DNA sequence: AAAAGTTTCCAAAGCGCTTGCAAAATCATA
DNA sequence: TATGATTTTGCAAGCGCTTTGGAAACTTTT
């Protein structure tokens, strides 16, 4: 059933049906009702491609997903997408996933824009000076960054959490409890979130008058093995009594290493990790419940899609930086320094 | 830059440009080369909606993602999507994510088909008698089931792993090592994979001449907490010396409970879990490396998208059931019964 | 009752691409 | 060189929707 047939069936023009269905005011309520009813009974659905062609809008938000065989997919991405999807569904638009190899990333954004498959895109996991921001600005593809860049040449809109503040507070908490040497397992510093967190940690040390080498930082892939090895090394080679982890996955590896070394969490070592809120890995269910900085990544996905769903192709967003506070949830994994 | 302009620029007709770019044979190689070069320098990309409208093909595979606030997203979904995405990218088509609340699920499939946004869909996590199979067959929306149904009224194509065989083998292994009482933490039995796995376990018992109550099964949500509680209960109320888990997440909870009870894995209790292969949770990195039935879910995603990417809208697939064997990887978490 | 203003509807022109059919150009054969 | 066969190209008609510019029908005003 297409527009033409439906219009014939009703004995009105296609124009009228289209307007009635799309809520235009110049259709009498009586006609509108009749049209809507008929559309329902016949199960009419506009052909999306036809509508897109006619309106010039894609009705979709793009999400470029980089997949490399050697790099595992991020399980948090699904949480993020669930949030974005919910907001998109509410606005009646779609999430368009564009898988790509890392090296073809920019080309994928170009393709998405050029073929008009999406009206806007989400830029996730931004690097400090991420080329995608420049690219999207240049080609007029509206976007929101999930996270932040660390450049001020090009303004851009973003939604991010206060990584610096969160880790500042977490570090301060450890310091206040008397810890003098701490370890920090973090992501690679070319990613902004990692850089921000490091900044937060360092500023807390400075505030307390501790030297820079009071913290030993390991940067690396955010997986369990990296964290296990790093923790072993930290325990063997330094005198840390506090440990910060940039994710719960890292905390899992740390816990394994600490246990192996016979160290008791919350007593010998105080542990704080960042929790993106992921139902399959809950900090309160660790054998020693974990103190966490906490911010649900699903909410970020929702908010970004929400902001994006209003805007049409070509119309750039206001470059507002929306920074959310990070909660600090205290549980049993921390204690006073010996 | 659109077709028309590009054609003008080259001094040929739109037809010729279109044909050259789409690899039709009736264009001379000389012309084709010229056209392709021009397309590259001008950065021409066909408007996807226009092409879709003209060809009647959507060029996308649909993936309906149910999101309910109370039900967490499945992290494995991302692995699956990574595989599907890779195959889709290879074929030059897209994965179209359609988020939906559980109760609107069927409606979402209808909408996807009606508005022609996709040429085909993936049906994942099928229930024993899943209504989606009937629906898609009825409305002529091509699909492949990831997993299987348990009905034979309607034929359907699927890609699944041999859940029954895998758990049969795993159970047999435990029985051969002398275990007489085993526990089994499984998903809800309305989901086929869970039903199949139970079947495999039971048939192994029967083969060995053990009574039905040699196994105690707990069905529930596949999360860590369910598994933790269930394991505690099993240990307290039964005499099990072997434990099967339907996922690594369940194994995590089981390990926590067992450790808490002071039971040594591989000695007091033998543990086998199913591993969907998920880089963030590796069975070989458990403190006692885990024996597993193993099948990468990413491969399944790849294969399904691959099969789907050839077919065009309306053209149903052959109802082949593609069942993959499941590996049994033995590690230290199992040992002979006392 | 005619003029002016409103409301309701329609015809037709796109949107940018593909493709059936016909025409033009090229080649092969007699 | 003429003729038919073959390769290459172009014209124009869609694909199904939105939307502009009016026309037609109806109300209100004078």
Averaged pLDDT of chain A: 93
Which descriptor suits the 3D outline of chain A? elongated
Distance between the amino and carboxyl termini of chain A: 76 Å
Rg on CA atoms of chain A, Å: 25 Å
What percentage of the residues of chain A does DSSP assign to strands (E)? 15-25%
Question: Can you describe this structure?
Answer:
2 copies of one chain form a homodimer. With 338 residues, chain A is an alpha/beta fold. Chain A has 12 helices and 12 strands. Chain A has helices spanning 3-10, 14-21, 29-42, 48-55, 75-91, 105-114, 131-139, 163-176, 192-208, 224-237, 248-260, 297-310; strands at residues 60-66, 94-100, 120-124, 143-146, 158-161, 182-186, 215-219, 242-245, 270-275, 291-294, 321-324, 327-329. In chain A, the strands form 2 sheets. A 6-stranded parallel sheet of chain A has the order 2-1-3-4-5-11, with helices on both faces. In chain A, helix 11 links the parallel strand 8 (242-245) and strand 9 (270-275). In chain A, helix 2 (14-21) crosses helix 3. Chain A is elongated and about 85 Å long. The first copy, chain A, starts with a helix and ends in a 9-residue tail after the last strand. The model of chain A has no long low-confidence stretch (mean pLDDT 93). Chain B binds a DNA duplex (30 and 30 nucleotides) through helix 2 and helix 4.
